[in-house]
Amino acid sequence: MSKPEAHNGNNTANGATNISPKNGVSTDSEGLSVSRAKEAIKSWYGFQDAAKEMLKHSEALGKVEEILDNHFDRADVAHKNGIRVAELQSAIQELMVGYEQRYSTWKEEKCQLERRVKDLESEVATGEGVAEKQNINHKQAVAQIKKETESEKKTVAKLTKELETANAKTQQANTKLDRCNEQLKEWEGSLSLLKELDFKVFDTKIKQLFTRCAKIARTHFLRDLPKEAFLDYGRWEDFPKVLKVQLSFPPTNSAAAKHMRMAAAMHIVADRLCTNFFRPSYLPEYTDAGDPMKEILGQQYTNNKRRERMMRSLLLSTYSSKDIDEAIKQTVQDTSEDVCQLLSLIGGSAEGFQKDIKSFFSDAASVWKEAQCSNKMVEASTTEDYEDWQWDKLEDFTSAVGETEPQSTLPRFEALNLLPCIFVPEIQHTVDRGCVLWPSQNTVIAAEQEFTKCPVRKPKIRKPSFAGGRRLSTQSDGLGVKSDERPAFLDTKQRATLTEAAQTTNGKRGS
C-alpha cells in the first residue's frame, strides 16, 4: 500500500528545486516539472491500490458480520424452540393429569354400575314386571356406558398419538439445541487468545516507554545545529507547514529554539506511535497508517463488548505469528524511515537517531501486543478533549527559560500532543494520562517572541516558466513549501536521485 505521509517526505527530498547557493537559478526546470508529474502519477496509482485493498477488506468484514449475525439468529431460534418444548411438556402433563382424573371417574362409575346391576338383578328376582322394565333400562344404560367407553378409548388413543408427536418434536428440538451449543462452544473457543492483562505491569512498561521517548528527543534535538542550517530564515518559517505543527522555530541554538525542535519531534513520534502501533491488530495488509479495524472495533465495543472481543480474537488468529512479525517489522521500518526523513529538517538525521527511533518503535510494538491480547479493550489517543482530560505536561518546557512577558497575540494552537493517553474504558482505568504542550508555557512564549524578532529572508521567487508546452506550477506540493521557494538544502545523494529521476522521465518523453 502507499504511505501518504512517507510520500510527502519524499516530495521534500526529491521534488526540491536544485538552486545554486550563489545565484539561486534553476539548473533543470524541465526535469523538475516532469519529476513532479511522475510523482503525481505514482500517488494516483497508490491511491487506487489503497482503494482496492479497502474494498477487499470490506468484503471480508461483511462475511465476518454475516457469520456473527447467523450465529446469534440460530441462538435465538434454539432459545425459542426450548420455550416451545417446555410449553408442550407442560401441556402433555396437564393432559396426563386430566386423563388420570377421567380414568378414576370412569372406574368409580363402573363400580357404581356393577353395584347397580346387582341391585337390578335383586329387584328382578322380586318381580318379573319390574325386572323386565329395569332390565330394559339396564341394557340401555350398559349400551350408553359402552358408547362412552369407546369414546374415551378414542380420546386416549388420540392423546397417546399427540404425546408421541410431541416427544418426536422434543427430540428434534434437543438435537438442534445440541448443535447450537456445539457451535456456541466453537465460537467461545475463538476467545481463547484473549486473556486477563496485568495492568500493574503493563502500566509500568508504558511509562518506561514514554520516558524513553522523551529521553530520545532530548538527546537528539536539544543540541546545537551548525550555523549553515540557519542561513535561510525562510526555510525555518515554513517548518510549521512542513511538519504540521503550529510552533515557531527560531533559526538559532537558543534554549527556546532547541526545545521547540524537541516538541515537534515528540509530537510527530507520538502521532506515528498512536496511528501505526497502538491499534487492535497488526494486519499484513495495513503495515502503514490507515487500519480501518480500529474504528470498526470501537463501534462494536459501543454496541456489544462481547462481539468486539470476538472480532478482535478472530483478527489475531487469522494470521500466523510469522506473518504478524513480518508486518510489525515492515511497520517499524516504514515508520522509522518516515519519521527520520521528516525530522531531518530540524536535525534528526544522525545515524544514532535512526537507530534509537527504530529500536523504540520495535519495543513499542512488543509492548502493545500484550494490549491486543487483553480481554478488555485498551485504547490510545492523541485527540482527547484538551479541557476535560487531565493531561500531564513536561516541565522541560516551563523551566528551560526564565520568566517571559505575556503574549500580546492569541495562541497559535490550543495544545500540542507530545505523548498519547492510554486508558481502559471498560474498567475506567487510566494507564497513562499522556502529555501535551500548552501555549502558555514559558518556552513556547519565548520561542514565539524570539522568532518575531528574527529578520526573515525568503529566497527569491522565480517567475513561472514554460517547459515542454506545460507551465511549471508554483503551488504547494503538500508539504507547505511552494515549488519555487524551496531552499537548496540537498545533500549529494538527494541531488543524484533527483538528477536520475529527471533523466529517466526525459528519456520516456523522447520515446
User: Structural class from helices and strands?
Assistant: mainly alpha
Number of strands: 7
Measure the end-to-end span: 30 Å
Radius of gyration: 41 Å
In spatial order, strands of the major sheet run 1-3-4
N-to-C SSE string, H for helix and E for strand: HHHHHHHHHHEHEEEEHEEH
**Major sheet:** 3 strands, antiparallel
Outline: rod-shaped
What is the helix content? 55-70%
- Assess the beta-strand content as a share of residues: under 5%
Let me know the average pLDDT.
75
Low-confidence stretches: 1-26, 457-499, 501-511
SS field, number of helical segments? 13
What does this structure look like?
This protein is mainly alpha-helical and 511 residues long. 65% of the residues lie in helices and 4% in strands. The protein is built from 13 helices and 7 strands. The longest helix is centred in the N-terminal third of the chain and has 98 residues. The radius of gyration is 41 Å and the shape is rod-shaped.
